[in-house]
Each structure stands twice: as C-alpha cells, then as structure tokens.
C-alpha cells in the first residue's frame, strides 16, 4: 500500500483523536478513539469502516483554510481504494478499472454482446424462450466459471485484508451484529439517525441510505430469482420460461426495478456531491460500476417486457453481455466494497466484544 496515503490518515486521525468532537457520528470514530497509536492495519480498517457520509467534514473546525487542513473522508477514501488494489488478486486489474472504469465496462459489454450474437448465429440446441437463442448448456458453460472465478478472487482478497487488520476467529454474535448493521445501513444514518450530508452540507438526508438499500436488496432479489430458477430446473424438472406470477419472475422483476432505480438515484446523488470529499481519481470508476450495475437491471427489465418481440435476440445478447461483464469485474470494481465493508463491520464487532 502507498505509504504517503497511510501517513496522511495517521496525521489526521491523531488530530481527530485529540479533538473527539465527532465521537458519536459513525462507527469510525469510536474505533479511532479506542487507539492511541495507529498501525497500518488499523488505518486500513478505519478506511473500510468509513461510509463516506461526510458529516464529520462539515462539522469539523479544522478543515481548510485552517492550517491542519483536515479532510478525513477524502483521506480515508484514498486509503480504502488503495487497500482494494493492494489486496485484490490479481491487483493490476483493480488499478486499471478504478481509473478507467466507464470505458472498460462499456467495451466489455459491447464485446461480450457481440460474442453472444455470434454464438447465436451458430444456432441453438433448441428450447423455448431465451433457450431458442442460446441453449441452457451454453449459458451454464459460460456463466458458471464467470461466477466462480470472481468468488475465488474475492476470497483471496478478503483473506489478505482480514490478516492485515488483525481479524481472528469469528463468533456467531459478530456475524449477527455485522449483518444487522449492513441490512439497516446504520452507518449511513450517522449517530444522529438523521441521514448523512453526502449531497448537501447543510441538510441531513436519508436519500443515499435508501438508494444503497434499493441496490442491495435489488441485487439480492435478482440473485434469488436466478437461484430459484436453478432449483426449479434441476430439482423439479421445470425449465424456463416461467409465467409472470411465478417466483423467479416476481423476484427478478422486483429486483430489476430496485436495481435500476437505486443505481439511477446513486448516480444523481454522486453528480450533486462534492468530488473533493472522496477519492477523485476513482470517481470515474465508481460511476462506471454503478452505471453497469444499473444497466444489468434495466436491460433485464427490457428483455422481459420485449421478450416476445423481434428485438428479443439482440436484447438477450446485450443483457448477457452486461451480466457477464459485471460478474468478471466484480472483484476489481467498487462492487468489492460491499464485501470489504462487511469484513470491516465483522472486525469492528470483534473489537467491541
């Protein structure tokens, strides 16, 4: 990891530790105030515990033009991204995406869409609905490795992170606390419970918290739809397509709507927010990831609504290209932040215990 980024957080954290004005703002400050000296692993943990709500910055009396020039949200965001790049396997892919994410996502979606269109031209093994365009076996052969390989990469990355921050054997209580805080997005409500100042320094709002929840639950619903469809196919010998009132369709459509609305809302909030209070170098990569995830939801909805038209083969190729790009890029985009944040919350639960 970059020493100068670590040292800057160490400088600012030392000042924050002496001031303690923000003690009740979020999970970062109790963890910060529990330390007297800040090891590199401690700073990495604090960075991934931070949700960049920015309330501490707007409340701080030591920001510029004060000589201390504190900007803790920015400093932690830079260390956070640097930690993902340092621990990710293989690391060069993460560095490339965080700086050129939009272009990489667009190129991959277009390239994979053309690939699926070419496969379609070779003919399908037969089937109904989407399987008339691309067989079920072909989809499994393509997407199963594309799903498993990122999981392996994330497992290696998180193991490196856990060892760096001094994590130990987990207890059930740690997992329960961390999952509850994740589901409720507690750290996006700050210690006051009024929301955060992400978009406007003078106004507390729950908008960012709600958009995060929409994205999280939308993604989980889409994953559940795929899982239920897999069980129906292999266990109950009931292959797709399914009617609208079936469980896979209800889960998938509701998940797609939440994903699309949540990602659109997140982009709108990020466009209004002050870039200088985050990692400026990674801003394009963050927008690229959010746009890609939102496009996965949107293209899935369009595919459902227009699935009975002549546009279906083209829409299927585009949607599958987006999904494949998303899976393969997951360990190297901001999607990984959800896994690191959960690991940071688990470690924080250990600290409190």
Automatic annotation (TrEMBL):
UniProt keyword annotations, A-Z: Membrane, Transmembrane, Transmembrane helix
Record keyword Membrane present: yes
Positions of transmembrane segments: 101-119, 139-158, 214-236, 248-269, 281-305, 311-332
Record protein name field: 4Fe-4S ferredoxin-type domain-containing protein
Lineage: Bacteria, Pseudomonadati, Pseudomonadota, Alphaproteobacteria, Rhodobacterales
